[in-house]
Amino acid sequence: MVSIEVSDFYEEWATRSGAVIDAAAGEAPDFLEDARLAYRKFFQDTLPAPDGVAFDAVDAGGVAVERVITAGAVDGRYLVYLHGGAYIAGDPQGYRGLVGHLARRLRAHALVPDYRLAPEAPFPAAVEDAVTAYRWLLEQGVEPEDVVLAGDSAGGALAVSTLVAARDQGLPMPAASIAISPWANLEHTGATMFSLDGVDPSVGREGLRRAAGIVLGRAPANGPLASPVFADTRGLPPVLIQIGGHEVMLSDALRLAAKLAEDSVPTRLDVAPEMGHVWHLLVSHLPAADKAVADAVAFALEHLRAE
Question: Is 177 a catalytic residue?
Answer without folding.
Answer: no
